[in-house]
Amino acid sequence: MEENTAAIASLISKAIINLGQGITGKLSEIRGEMVANFQEISNLRQEIDNFRNNLNALDKDIENFRHEFTRLQDNVKNSIQLSSQQITSQFSSQINNLQSQISQLASRPVASSSGGGGVSTDDYNNLVKKNNKRSEIVSNFVRKMNNCLSSSSSGQQVSKIVQEFIDEWNASL
């Protein structure tokens, strides 16, 4: 019986040693997995930080683009307004010149049927109509440009208005 007890004790002892070795092996395996997981977590954190940095840089680039676009838009708007003012001034000057010419013609005596050398009534009336038409064209152009500029319309819309004006003006010549 003592032999059996010693054999059982030996078996239990070997089982405990084997169990301890198994537990130690599993613990080593778990530790290895934990180290790998921690390394993966660290890598993911680094990737997240890189992503955040890239996102912040992209946000900054977008903000710079917005600022530059707004600045460019303001510059274009100011240039268009200045051009509109210059065009309006030039055409006002031309209209004043036409009005002056009409006034000069109006001060001449009207030609008689005998050909006395004055300005005919038809010529005078045609000049007045032409002047009125040009005044209307310029007024419409200025109104359209002011509406366009106040509504921050596109450059395409401005170009269309300018082209329409040029076409109307040339048609009135």
Automatic annotation (TrEMBL):
What keywords does the record list, in alphabetical order? Coiled coil
Put simply, this protein is called 10726_t:CDS:1
Q: Which residues form a coiled coil?
A: 41-75
Query: Which organism does this sequence originate in?
Result: Paraglomus occultum
